[in-house]
Every structure is written in C-alpha cells, then in structure tokens.
Amino acid sequence: MMEGSKLAFPDLYRVDQNFPDTGIKDICVELRKMLGEFDLRQRTRAGQTVAVCVASRGTHDLRDLVATTVSHLRDAGLKPFITPAMGSHGAATGEGQAMVLRGLGITEALTGVPIHASMEVVSLGKIDEGPEIFTAVDALEADHVVVINRVKPHTGFHSDVESGLCKMLAIGLGRQRGAANMHKYDLSRCIVPAARLILEKQSVLFGLAVTENALGGTHSLRLAGPETFVATDRELLKEARELLPRLPVECLDLLIVEKIGKNISGAGMDPNVVGFWRRGGGERTPDYRVLVVLDLTPESHGNAIGIGLADVTTRAFTEKIDWDATYKNALSSKRFTGVRLPMVRENDALALEAALGPVVDPMAARIGRIISTSDLRTFWVSESVWPQLKDKTNLVLHRTPLRISFDDQGRLKPFSV
C-alpha cells in the first residue's frame, strides 16, 4: 500500500452557483441564418480557396461552428480547408497542431475537407509598436480567410481587446515564430495594430466571434466582417467579462484544483479565477494562500503550462508532462512562471498534507475544492468558509458533510456532481 497522509482533514460541503443559463439553444440554425444573410457571392468567386482558421481552445460548440461554416462555404462554390491558428500549441509542430484539432473533434471526416498545418510563415512587415508580424503560409496562399474564436478575458494582460478575433490573426496565425515574436512586446498595445496590418494584407471574409456563459454554453455569436473585427472584439469582451465564472470566496488557506489543461485555459488554469498575482505579483486578490493541482487533462497532450501557478502537485501529474511541448509554449509566450515546478509529493494525500502544513489548526482550515477553473457551477468548501458565503443570493449551500478520502494509492476520491 502506497504511503498516505496521516493528517485528518475537515469535512467539505457542496455549494452550487446559480449561473443564468442564457444563450443560443441551436447554434447551427442561428449560424446558418447569419451566413445566409452575409452575401458571399459579392466577395468571392466560385472555386476560390478559403482557409478556415481554428484555435486550440475548447469552445463549446466548436464542431458545429466549423462544420456548418465549411458546409456553407462549399455550398457557395468555394474550396475551404482547415488550418490551425494556435501559435506554438501542439508542441509547435504541424503534426502536433493537427492532432490538437482532431482532439477537439475537428477532423477531415467531420468537415469533408483537409487540414493544412504547415508551420511555415511569411513576414508582413513591422508595425510602429515594434514587432515584425508573421502569418501562416497556409492562410496567406488561400484566396480568403475565415477565423473562428471565442472572445474572453486574456490570462496574461488586460486591455480593451484581449482574446478574440484580433488575437487569433495577430498571434494564432503567426504559428510558433509569429507568436514568439509578438510576446516579446506589450500585447495590450500590439494586438490591434498587428491585426489591422494582416487585414490589409489578406482577404479576410469574416470572423465568427463567440462568447460563452458561466455554464460553458454559447451565450452569443457574432459574424463580423473584416471592417468590424476590432469593434466586435471590444464589445464582446465587455460581455465576456460579465459572464466569466469566478469563485465567490476571497480568502482560502487551501484551494484544491482537480485538473488543469490547455483545453481549460490558455494558461492551464485561469489567473482571473485563481489570482493574477500568481503570474506576476501584485495585489493578492483573491488570496488563495496555497494552491494544489492534482491532474492534467488528456486534451493538453502533455502541455502542462500553468503548473507554475501551483504550490504543490503530485508525482502522477509530473509523469504526464511533455516538457518539450510545455517549454515551447513558455518560450513562445515569454512567461516562464507558468512552467516552474512546484513542490512534488508522491500522491494526492501527501500533497494535501503538505499544503496544510502552514496551518495552525488544519481542522479549522478554510479549504476550497474545484474541478477546474472553467467548471465552477459546483464547488466544495470547509465549514469555516461559510461566513464568506452566507449572504450571497445566487448560491445553494448543502448541509451534508462530505469526507475527504483517498483510495489505496493515495488518490483523492471524487465527489459526485
């Protein structure tokens, strides 16, 4: 039997957040309507090629968005193909990026068109803010470009344009070389000018901008012509900030994060949830004093970026890490904090014991447990956290105690959701 913790842990209690389930119920019907109202024939000629650019994020309705878009382009007499727009993800190789797309369900069988994933890029010149702007040859050689991306707060900086259509053009389509070069500069100042340069140099037909509600479903969908990319990103970012799920707890002795991964957040786990100070200092809000990460999602393909935001992890987690893929991501983003290795313990039980080491009375510790930073509808807290929650109207607090327990390998047993 593997060594386990001899420490007693306080019981946890389930808390449900009542997020509004607002959004689009049938994304295919809505998208077909939008595409039907967008006159492709005035912008294209039959037989022209279209690079449909897809990011690596786990957007909720991504398969339907891509398949419906490709089908519409084919019906209009065009020749679409899929190309990744994910910077250095997928270990910064074409094969790896195609594998990431297929892992998201974006396959040749789904769309009926090929995936072109060369890492070759071409320089489009420099912008006044400094960086040289690169774009994928696959996209540049196509007659037209379409981009599909979720609009959301960025995990590394704040501005009026963050993650969205412009970032996908400026960084995602730059492949590894372009992404790495852009991250040498202040992205809050460079993304919009870079996107505008690309819009001048390439025939971008339209972008599909998506926001998601706190439950992970599609909240809104916008078809934006190239002339409205920036305005669309700005408008939908405000919406996305309001929709972003967070924990309604400002102070914890310990936060247990069951899993992180690239399909959860570009940073592995979202600093907007666990605290931006973990990336680069600043005000400790929220103040989760010790953060334990237990698992890496299969969809990450070994890219463990984000583990550096944790304080403690496990041997099992480290054995899943593809360090080459992880370091390439860090080298491209120029953020090394995300790949620092925290304290590593042999199993979950010992990791939690280590995390509670600084607490005078572990049985009175303020503990929170979440599945991931993108799945916050249900979470669990120790009883000492209840004073922080009792006056919040959108919560359902369950009074049935749940024991923290482990299997014979020291792995934390899941709670039912």
Give the SSE map.
Blueprint (H helix, E strand, L loop, with lengths): L11 E6 L9 H11 L11 E6 L7 H14 L3 E6 L9 H10 L4 H4 L9 E6 L5 E5 H4 L3 E7 L14 H6 L4 H8 L4 H15 L2 E9 L5 E7 L4 H15 L7 E10 L10 H4 L2 H4 L6 E10 L15 E3 H4 L4 H11 L9 E3 L2 H8 L11 E4 L7 E5 L3 H4 L5 E3 L20
Parallel strand pairs: 2-3, 2-6, 6-7, 9-10, 9-13, 11-12
Antiparallel strand pairs: 1-14, 1-15, 4-5, 7-8, 13-14
Helix pairs in contact: 1-2, 7-13
Give a description of the structure:
This protein has 417 residues and is α/β, with parallel strands linked by helices. The chain folds into two domains: 12-19 and 245-397, no CATH class; 27-243, LarA, N-terminal domain (Rossmann fold). The protein is 29% helix and 22% strand. It contains 15 helices and 15 strands. The strands form four sheets. Strands 10-9-13-14-1-15 form a six-stranded mixed β-sheet, with helices on one face. Strands 3-2-6-7-8 form a five-stranded mixed β-sheet, sandwiched between helices. Helix 7 (175-182) crosses helix 13. The model has no long low-confidence stretch (mean pLDDT 93).
Summarize the structure.
This protein has 417 residues and is α/β, with parallel strands linked by helices. The chain has helices at 27-37, 62-75, 94-103, 108-111, 137-140, 165-170, 175-182, 187-201, 229-243, 271-274, 277-280, 315-318, 323-333, 348-355, 386-389; strands spanning 12-17, 49-54, 79-84, 121-126, 132-136, 144-150, 204-212, 218-224, 251-260, 287-296, 312-314, 343-345, 367-370, 378-382, 395-397. The protein has two domains: 12-19 and 245-397, no CATH class; 27-243, 3-Layer(aba) Sandwich (Rossmann fold).
